[in-house]
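During the second half of the funding period, the structural biology subgroup turned its attention to how the target accommodates small molecules. The most pressing case was hypoxanthine, which had performed well in the primary screen but for which no bound structure existed. We therefore specified the complex as follows and requested a full 3D prediction, including the ligand pose.
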Amino acid sequence: MTPHINAAKGDIAEIVLMPGDPYRAKWAAENFLTKPRLINQVRGMLGFTGLYKDTEITVHGSGMGMPSLSIYVNELIREYDAKTLIRIGSCGGMQKHVKIRDIILAQTASSTQTPSSAIFRELNFAPCADFDLLSAAAEASKKKKSKIHIGGIYSSDVFYDERPDLNEQMVRHGILGVEMEAAELYNLAARHGCKALAVLTVSDHLQTGEALSPEDRQNSFGDMVEIALEAATALG
Ligand code: HPA
């Protein structure tokens, strides 16, 4: 047990899928895993473990933002021996060719700062996805209807951003989308010798102002979950 997860040690799999929203964890577990069982609900942060094609998988919420994700990922890695962590979440599209409902595989995650900034100090560490997971996800994406983009994303600390110039610089440098968690996931995976990837559905667009309605989200979210599951289990 940890301060934020009251699961028994063997109740959490080596592969953990992490949506920001605890209810999306419930939805993914109920729709994509067989025999899902609730393994955590401290502070309403739901976690489930079940089977995907005979492989044990945990789906656990991360909460919103890097400080929240850092708590859960630290505890999952340090206390529960998680080895492969895949964020499944939404992001804001930043490039014109990246459309609503498209899926982004985040090769790198830029940021102004992360919870690890105090450790890195003057270092400008480059958080990146695990290459094997990224290529397995790219392979799994070929079978999906969703359009896939692979490239850099921006992990921001603010949803209601009052520095639009930061987004402008990210757009200018080809960054595909903005979300709030992946950079710290990649930092922690690097520090602890784990594999990490973020698979993101574009739920709104910074250039066009478009946004997915809640009903519209389901299909592309399903493709995202399947890509994450296929990638994680392909590595064996
Ligand atoms: N900004 C930050 N995080 C997000 C966004 C956004 O526009 N959309 C979905 N997650």
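Two results from this model are relevant to the next phase. Residues 90-92, 156, 159, 178-180, 203-204 surround hypoxanthine (CB under 6 Å). The longest helix spans residues 214-234.
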